[in-house]
Design a protein that fits this description.
The chain is an alpha/beta fold and 284 residues long. 27% of the residues lie in helices and 18% in strands. The protein is built from six helices and nine strands, in the order E-E-E-H-E-H-E-H-E-H-E-H-E-H-E. Strands 1, 2, 3, 4, 5, 6, 7, 8 and 9 form a nine-stranded mixed beta sheet that branches. The longest helix is centred in the C-terminal third of the chain and has 22 residues.
Length: 284
């Protein structure tokens, strides 16, 4: 099961309220208009000392069914083999691709990390991205093969909704919010069970709030929005002092409301490794 939420941020500030919650069937795929291809995306990942998990993410991205995307890996001054793993993967990509075709990758090195570090690294990645549509996940996640295709289809379907409704949707920008669960640990301890339940419950509440037009959160490990939206609201500047990093834009125009849309990606979404054994549950 995957909860796909689209938060519409109108550029003109006018209120558009849409109420509803869609729990998607993984077999559902929004149809593309005749003769139209899936738009390319830039996947932005900030990594800091992630040598243990980064290769699994890159391999998961290599299995994506979307034919055109780039991976922008931002090395946030790592002290381990993170940049070398990223460089080796990028160098192994096929050479017979054009500027807009196939899978491409680039490594962005942060030599002068600044607080808040993750937001700073992600901002560098967004600046380096080539494509208008951005997707975000974390270095310790493993998105399923249909993840990017589902996001691209949802962006395309949103852009053409106004054609059927007789209204112009070009003045709105979608923010696609995905559910991202913890993986089941081998021992399935009480802590792991609680963390997985809490993550699911928090995701359901967030989706419901968007459906009611009162969005209040998203997770940065399964998220997509246009770069133009990031730039229009000033990126992370509005919450640069916030203690918890995220890759969602942090300010919405006055009057913006929620619009719920299925992003329809196969389960389990962009999953995250189980939390380590400890006495108190971690924050997500």
């Amino acid at each position: 099961m995957f909860l796909g939420v689209t938060l519409v941020l109108p550029e003109d500030g006018r209120e558009r309220r849409h109420v509803g919650l869609v729990v998607s069937d993984p077999s559902h795929r929004p149809a593309l208009p005749a003769g139209e291809d899936l738009p390319p995306l830039s996947v932005v990942v900030a990594a800091r000392d992630e040598e243990a998990d980064l290769l699994a993410l890159l391999e998961a991205l290599a299995r994506q069914t979307h034919p055109r995307f780039e991976v922008v890996l931002v090395d946030d001054a790592s002290t381990d083999r993170t940049p070398q793993i990223a460089r080796d993967w990028i160098d192994a990509l096929p050479d017979d691709r054009g500027d807009e075709d196939g899978v491409t990758g680039r490594l962005v090195r942060v030599e002068d990390p600044k607080p808040p570090r993750k937001k700073h690294a992600l901002t560098r990645g967004v600046a380096a991205a080539r494509h208008p549509l951005l997707a975000f996940t974390d270095a310790d996640c493993t998105p399923p093969p249909g993840w990017l295709e589902a996001l691209a289809r949802a962006h395309t379907a949103f852009a053409h909704d106004g054609d059927d409704a007789g209204s112009d949707r070009t003045s709105a920008a979608p923010l696609l919010i995905g559910y991202s669960p913890y993986r089941r640990a081998e021992d399935a301890s009480l802590l792991n069970r609680f963390a997985r339940w809490e993550t699911f419950f928090a995701g359901a509440l967030a989706a419901g709030a968007c459906g009611l037009g009162r969005p209040y959160m998203a997770v940065g490990r399964n998220l997509s929005y246009p770069r133009a939206l990031f730039e229009r609201i000033g990126g992370f500047a509005a919450t640069s002092s916030a203690p918890r990093p995220s890759s969602r834009p942090t300010r919405r125009p006055r009057g913006a409301r929620g619009f719920v849309r299925s992003a329809a990606t196969p389960p389990p979404g962009a999953s995250t490794p189980p939390p380590p054994a400890r006495t108190s549950p971690p924050s997500t």
